[in-house]
Amino acid sequence: MGRRRIRSRIRKSHFYTFKCLRPKTLEGQGPHIINGPGYTRIVHCNQPQMHLAKVLRYTSNYVSTTRYNLITFLPKCLYEQFHRVANFYFLVAAILSVFPLSPFNKWSMIAPLIFVVGLSMGKEALEDWRRFMQDVKVNSRKATVHRGDGDFGRRKWKKIRVGDVVKVEKDQFFPADLLLLSSSYEDGICYVETMNLDGETNLKVKRCLDVTLPLERDDAFQSFTGTIKCEDPNPNLYTFVGNLEYDGQVYPLDPSQILLRDSKLRNTSYVYGVAIFTGHDTKVMQNSTKSPSKRSRIEKRMDYIIYSLFALLVLVSFISSLGFAVMTKMHMGDWWYLRPDKPERLTNPRNPFHAWVVHLITAVLLYGYLIPISLYVSIELVKVLQATFINQDLHMYDSESGTPAQARTSNLNEELGQVDTILSDKTGTLTCNQMDFLKCSIAGTSYGVRASEVELAAAKQMAMDLEEEQGEDLTDPPRTRGRIHSYAKIPTRSPSEIELETVVTATDERDQTHSTGVKGFSFEDKRLMDGNWLYEPNSDDILMFMRILAVCHTAIPEVDEDTGKCTYEAESPDEVAFLVAAGEFGFGFSKRTQSSVFINERFSGQPVEREYKVLNVLDFTSKRKRMSVIVRDEEGQIFLLCKGADSIIFDRLSKNGKTYLEATSKHLNGYGEAGLRTLALSYRKLDENEYSVWNSEFHEAKTSVGADRDEMLEKVSDTMEKDLILVGATAVEDKLQKGVPQCIDKLAQAGLKIWVLTGDKMETAINIGYACSLLRQGMKQISIALKNEEGSSQDPEAVYAARQSILMQILNASQMIKLEKDPHAAFALIIDGKTLTYALEDGLKYQFLALAVDCASVICCRVSPKQKALVTRLAKEGTGKTTLAIGDGANDVGMIQEADIGIGISGVEGMQAVMASDFSIAQFRFLERLLVVHGHWCYKRIAQMICYFFYKNITFGLTLFYFEAFTGFSGQAIYNDSYLLLFNVILTSLPVISLGVFEQDVSSEVCLQFPALYQQGPKNLFFDWYRILGWMGNGVYASVVIFALNLGIFHVQSFCSNGQTADMNTMGTAMFTCIIWAVNVQIALTMSHFTWIQHALIWGSIFTWYIFLALFGMLPPKISGNIFHMLLEALAPAPIFWLTTLLVIAATTLPYLAHISFQRSVNPLDHHIIQEIKHFRIDVQDERMWTRERSKARQKTKIGFTARVDAKIRQLRGKLQRKHSILSVMSGMSGTSAASASSETTTSTTHHS
Q1: Which pLDDT band, with edges at 50, 70 and 90, does 1230 fall under?
Q2: Between helices 297-331 and 352-366, what is the axis angle to 10°?
Q3: 135 known member of a binding site
Q4: What's the pLDDT band for 485 if we cut at 50, 70, 90?
Q5: What is the domain class of 160-287 according to CATH?
Q6: Which DSSP symbol is given to 1133?
Q7: Which of 1223, 1070, 1043, 1241 lies closest to 1139 in space, CA to CA?
Q8: 262 annotated ligand binder
Q9: What average pLDDT does this structure show over 1041-1049?
Q10: Residue 918 to residue 903: CA distance in whole angstroms
Q11: For Mg(2+), which residues are the binding ones (predicted)?
């Protein structure tokens, strides 16, 4: 409590110059004009009961993210189910089966439909119930709310009303959009973390109106009242217009007083606020979109296949009914046994049209087995089992948090294998918001001996390449030499590509073997540690460097009362890393007062506490790209200490301040190539008179009123931040989440595009891009941006000019990419939210999309949640390819729901993203396995499963048509009704489910080693029309063979030794046996990976058919009917029955065997080659060839760690080549000189002779 009281006396508003703070005089400039549409909200502060009136009845604070409720579940879910073509067909068929025209029992159609639809609706209900329970958890959070007479009590979030006064304490979330009234700080300052809204981790500074500052205790609200008139609910996070009427005065309000729901109070003991917007009126909920019903692309294409099968069904039904009408007209009078003298209406030769119509309905029901009703049920079951495997994958289990991966919906499993573009949030998704101080350059000398991740990988790859080149000079072993070329059929890639599994990253290595034990400090160099810098040549410059690190910031130290350790609360993780480094170097920042900072300097003898009086702070903005403090030391000297981007600092150096410019620039380039974030440090000594004159100008600008205040401040600051003396530069390594660079690299090698959408400022986003290798040195950055004056005005001419400016920038960039001739050239597109507002308009968005698609990486910064969703929609609809969005905060919910697949990361900042997602994982690195392994498997399993389903149903259904045609289109089914029920339910359903659950073309390890295999999904190699029609053609062929062979063998001769001929039931049973064998052997040939479960289900299904036939035939004839003793007495004793089965199996599988043999021999796919390498164990016998094949099996990429290392290697090789060429020239010149000298000697000798 003592520390808290000390901090509360600091007037934090004195620290800032440019941030969202107004001078006091601004409150006197007059209220906003609040009238007209969009500005109708009236809030009675501390009087929530007044909003119960109908006119002012606002929405409650209850929020819901569910897809259904009790009223809408049944109609919406039924619509979703019967939106599926097959379900709709079987609904119609079930209705028709009630009438006498049906050839089957009505329950054989109704029961399967109820089962299929009921199972799917149950799954939807379970998934939505989970969302509902999460909503209950959020709505049941409790906040401290004023209950009247100065008494505050706890109340659930959902019961907070507009006008309620709420007290929020440190590290709590704001339950609604609040107007800040006061805080624990004397001047009403508070710190807010908006990570859930815009993804930024930098703390935002908010400040209340001076008039509400006295409301700093609970009892102060006993008689508090006021009225707020403001804008209506809208999704704009960064704007707010309103007025507060209080004590007879009207005060203007702006975004600096608004605390948004789901943001968190930080570094402030408590704040008081009044609820302005609640529930779905809050800005975070206004940015959310409704939970869409998502369907995979395979499922959508499956609808078209069902249409095709339905067209086939109508065609064969039309042919069948037409044939029946012709037979009725032409031959019915000759069939005496049908009593043509007393014809029925169906068989009346005088009315064939009636016969045609009635038989058409019968035929549509009879051939309904062409449409696989069990397909949807089987797919639902398979997807649930696939989701179970995803949930139980230990490789995606985060042991630190105890969080497994979770498939929150199983509808999109196969979509994971077809992703083209990933749209990722930055903060909390890619980064863990921690910087490591790694290197520095001081006085022209580089310090820090540890290698960065990029440097380590490049060195290791160079060594691997050298070893491989030396190995290629050796003779290949005879047993593998001939095979290398035969298996090297995966498209070749550049020889410098690396395999990241073999690279120990710098971060991991430091963490494991060289950890300093200090968070944020990975620096290692004895020259600077333990006061050794005193013995360096430029110790005075090093001293200034250390003091700039320790003094130039706005952080606050916090001392843990239990451990005594000091931690820092800063606006950015960079500042924390600098302060930690300064402390390790012996310059520990220990205390801050209102006007001073205190540094414990302990580098020579006893520690000394030095005080630096802070005179001014010129804080960092994205436009200034620098931050300065003006301080007075204990000797009375005044210094300006400045840190910022090197390009900005270098332009402001004095003539005598450029002593170390050349060396520092060289070091900065090296740090950048190593993937480090850099800042330049400089200073300037000021005269007392010079400072006094400047300070008066600065104070005048700071207290001015008007729209040009910031511009005036910037001009005054510029006059001081000049004639600087360069001291050095820092290099910090951005602490990404574990495995992020490797994951991005693997996804890039798999051919995926990665876009980053963040609310962070542009500089931070670019630095993260470098850290995770989405950007690299040498990559050409295309920055689409508006000048300040272009986007600020709403004047139609200004808006038109802004649009034209953006259009020209886009067109020029596109032209530049087209004209680029360097094959290694890579482009990165960077755009901010302000510019993106125009770029997403109808006239520009497709040009913007075309440019984005042409770039290797895309970074959108300062974007709102709504813009994230709009960019996702543009990428999804504009490219027509599968998009995946991944994020961890409430600000990512919109894009997660908009994307084809939404991935939520279950981080520490709430579960909103997870609850809106389709899949959730604990860390970004698990996305690699989710897509490259599970996505690849699920896509191929579902695709093969659906193709096989159509094959088996066409094989079975067309035999019904052939027999009906053979029997004069009589409508007679050759199979017993029990066979029809067994076919889809038992005898062929389990093997196809085993295919969808257990099939693996390659193992998970091989999937990760050969990431290019993933491209089989986005290219849709296993579910294109060529493959679908091929399977359908195979089904047609199999049905013809089965019917023709059985008819030819059983119809024209006896099949038993006693001369017995086959009746319809005997031939139907034999034909059905052949179908069971044919379709089950076919699925066995389709599988690449077998377990005992698959063997049991495939061969068990065939065995079950014989068991059923034997047992059913033993039942009394009243039950078994014409199947009585069919197997044991009629078919089993006949050798021709068994020979026919074998003949049919051989004939039906022959085309597939021929096709797969030809493909594997002539045009093998990637997985075919890998399967053969594994089968012949060539990967064990020749590891070098296996490594080379792994290197080749990657998509060409210009982003990721591999591309970055490739660029580094090209650079190093270029230097080596230049050195070799110089040496060659020099050796050639020396050789020429030697030859010349030799010639002269020879001539002289000859002359002498």
Answers
A1: low
A2: 150
A3: no
A4: very low
A5: mainly beta
A6: T
A7: 1070
A8: no
A9: 92
A10: 6
A11: 425, 427, 888, 892
Active-site positions read 425
CB 214 within 8 A of CB 29: no
Beta-bridge partners for 857: 828
Q: Is 758 annotated as a binding residue?
A: yes
Alpha-helix residue ranges (DSSP H) falling in 373-489 = 374-391, 453-472, 478-487
| 392-433+742-791+798-932 CATH pick, 3.40.50.1000, 1.10.10.10, 3.30.70.100, 2.60.120.10 | 3.40.50.1000
Torsion of CA 1188, 1191, 1195, 1196, to 10 degrees: -100
813 pLDDT above the threshold of 70 = yes
Matching residue, tokens 């049991």: 1096
Q: What angle do CA 102, 107, 109 make, to 5 degrees?
A: 65
Measured in residues, the chain has a length of 1249
For the stretch 489-511, pLDDT in tens is: 333 333 333 333 333 333 343 44
Structure tokens at 1096: 């049991």
Average pLDDT over residues 1048-1071: 82
Residue 475 vs residues 71, 463, 471: alpha-carbon distances, Å: 76, 21, 9
What is the amino acid identity at position 1083? I
Q: How confident is the model at residue 744 (pLDDT cuts 50, 70, 90)?
A: confident
Contact at 8 Å (CB) between 181 and 273? Answer: yes
Q: Are 680 and 726 in contact (CB under 8 A)?
A: yes
Cα(107)–Cα(1142) distance, rounded to whole angstroms?
Answer: 35
The response to whether 892 counts as a known ligand-binding position is yes
d(CA 101, CA 217): 82
For residue 1124, give both structure tokens: 């009585």
Sheet holding 151-156, edge to edge: 151-156, 142-148, 165-169, 270-277, 177-183, 258-259
Against a cut of 0.85, is the pTM above it?
Answer: no
Tell me what percent of the chain is helix, strand and coil, each rounded to the nearest 5: 55, 15, 30
Q: In this predicted structure, what is the pLDDT of residue 1200?
A: 67
Closest CA relative to residue 116, chosen from 378, 351, 363, 320: 378
How many other β-carbons are positioned within 10 Å of the β-carbon of residue 555? 18
Q: What is the pLDDT of residue 945?
A: 92
Find the range with the poorest average confidence among 26-30, 698-702, 1077-1081: 26-30
Residues 191, 192, 198, 200, CA torsion sign: positive
The answer to whether residues 1206 and 494 touch, using CB atoms and an 8 Å cutoff, is yes
Residue 736 reports pLDDT greater than 50: yes
pLDDT greater at residue 351 or residue 435: 435
At 376, list the tokens. Answer: 């949807």
* CA angle (618, 619, 621) in 5-degree steps: 125
> Is 862 flagged in the annotation as binding?
yes
How, if at all, do strands 901-905 and 882-887 pair? parallel
Helices within 332-421 (DSSP H only): 352-366, 374-391
- Cα–Cα distance for residue pair 1071/1092, rounded to 1 Å: 29
Between CA 347 and CA 349 the distance in angstroms is 6
- Angle in degrees, CA 111, 112, 113, rounded to 5: 90
Residues 886, 903 contacting (CB under 8 angstroms): yes
Residue 151 known to bind ligand: no
Task: Work out the burial of residue 710: count CB atoms within 10 Å of its CB; fewer than 13 is exposed, 13-18 middle, 19 or more buried.
Answer: middle
Cβ proximity of 1103 and 1096 under 8 Å? no
Domain boundaries, the chain: 63-142, 160-287, 299-371, 392-433+742-791+798-932, 934-1176
In degrees rounded to 5, what are phi and psi of residue 775?
-120, 155
Q: Both tokens of residue 363? A: 């035929």
- What integer pLDDT is reported at residue 988 of this predicted model? 87
Give the pair of three-digit tokens for residue 1017. 């999904």
Q: Are 265 and 172 in contact (CB under 8 A)?
A: yes
Higher-confidence residue: 458 or 1147? 1147
3-state secondary structure of 102: coil
Domains 160-287 and 392-433+742-791+798-932 share a fold: no
Residues 192, 198, 201, 202, Cα dihedral to 10°: -60
